[in-house]
Prior knowledge:
single chain; globular
Amino acid sequence: xxxxxxxxxxxxxxxxxxxxxxxxxxxxxxxxxxxxxxxxxxxxxxxxxxxxxxxxxxxxxxxxxxxxxxxxxxxxxxxxxxxxxxxxxxxxxxxxxxxxxxxxxxxxxxxxxxxxxxxxxxxxxxxxxxxxxxxxxxxxxxxxxxxxxxxxxxxxxxxxxxxxxxxxxxxxxxxxxxxxxxxxxx
Length: 186
């Protein structure tokens, strides 16, 4: 059911619960929830967001999941969180300091829950939150709280220069790396 304009307006400034458990293979981290996601209480819920198709195209899920099936990701060793918890109409409503603070909170979550990989979906937000202005899409040097880091393109429909096929390929690259990490531990 699509939220009404009133429900969208009421969602501004709210939060969505993380999909999180100890020892995940990959913790996906969005920038922050949009109003649509906030209104329905589900991550990457807006029609046209390409997260769920990219997750499937990358081989993380056996079929295309819907946002309302997000808790099923835990059974696959996957989770979802955000850099900034606050819902907004657009990610550019977030101040740099809010993203910096979100990076600190995220690092604390990583230390507590110990996922093997963190996958941040949004290169610009990653660069800002972790003060890494030259970061590129892909595996990052070093770790955060012992967790390997991979940056993926933002799957928002607004990021149209990343085609669905290219998004799926980037997600696949992460999946392959995360599987190699398990079969060839260091």
